[in-house]
Amino acid sequence: SMFLPKSLTLRSGTTFERPRVLKAAAEYLVEHPELAESYVSDVLPADQAQTAFQRAIAPRTGQHKVALTMA
């Protein structure tokens, strides 16, 4: 679809192999932990999902990814 104000194009996609892709990504991060430190700025427990969502929709300077932990 086309965004009129700036003539931007929105492209989306999906994968039917989500579990396999997520497992591969998790394994890659275990092998390269420094990547998580540079991409993830906020880690909150799952019971604080609302707070994580609020942070994600109102980004601040220096914020990257907001992640939930299930542990």
Question: Can you characterise this structure?
Answer:
This protein is extended. It is α+β, with helices and mostly antiparallel strands. Strands 1-2 form a two-stranded antiparallel sheet. It has a two-stranded parallel sheet with strand order 3-4. The mean pLDDT is 83. The chain has helices at 18-31, 33-39, 49-57, and strands at 2-3, 8-9, 40-45, 65-69. 42% of the residues lie in helices and 21% in strands.
What characteristics describe this protein?
21% strand; alpha+beta; two-stranded antiparallel sheet; extended; 71 residues; 3 helices; two-stranded parallel ribbon
Structural class: alpha+beta
- Helix share, percent: 40-55%
Percent of residues in beta strands?
15-25%
SSE string: EEHHEHE
Main sheet record = 2 strands, antiparallel
Structure summary, number of beta strands: 4
Annotation field: number of helices: 3
Distance between the termini: 39 Å
Q: How is this fold's topology laid out?
A:
Layout: E1 2-3, E2 8-9, H1 18-31, H2 33-39, E3 40-45, H3 49-57, E4 65-69
Task: Provide a quick synopsis of the model.
The protein is of the alpha+beta class and 71 residues long. The chain has 3 helices and 4 strands.
